[in-house]
Amino acid sequence: MDDCIFCDILAGQAEASFVAGDERVVAFADILPIGEGHTLVIPRRHAIGLHDLDPEDGAAMFRLGQRIAAAQRRLGLAEGVNLFLADGVVAGQEVFHAHLHVLPRQDGDALTLSVDYAPAPSRDALDTTAARLRDALEHTGG
Fold this sequence. Notes:
Blueprint: H1 5-10, E1 18-21, E2 25-29, E3 39-43, H2 55-74, E4 80-84, E5 100-105, H3 123-140
Antiparallel strand pairs: 1-2, 2-3, 3-5, 4-5
């Protein structure tokens, strides 16, 4: 894929500090870590986001992410872990090759997650949305 830094890393045309990998996915240190051990897990096959990510590659990303999170905890790099995948510009995606952040968390670290919740929707509204999603899943094979 042209102009994809992660594809360049996979091709050996850009540097990375590799952590692990298999036939489907590879993990390497994030160059702008939020904390020591911040790791990215990417599929070897280029996929921009969730819409074109092979489901088996996605499963492999989360399996490796889970193993890395456990290693972060064992090493004392994490008291907790966030897994984060941004899908699309509005979600904060900056590199358009699907990737999973494995974020080691420590009490008082620099990362904050904040939500300004709107009032909770009614049960009828939730049921309506759930029905729409069920219908969409049935018509897309999902």
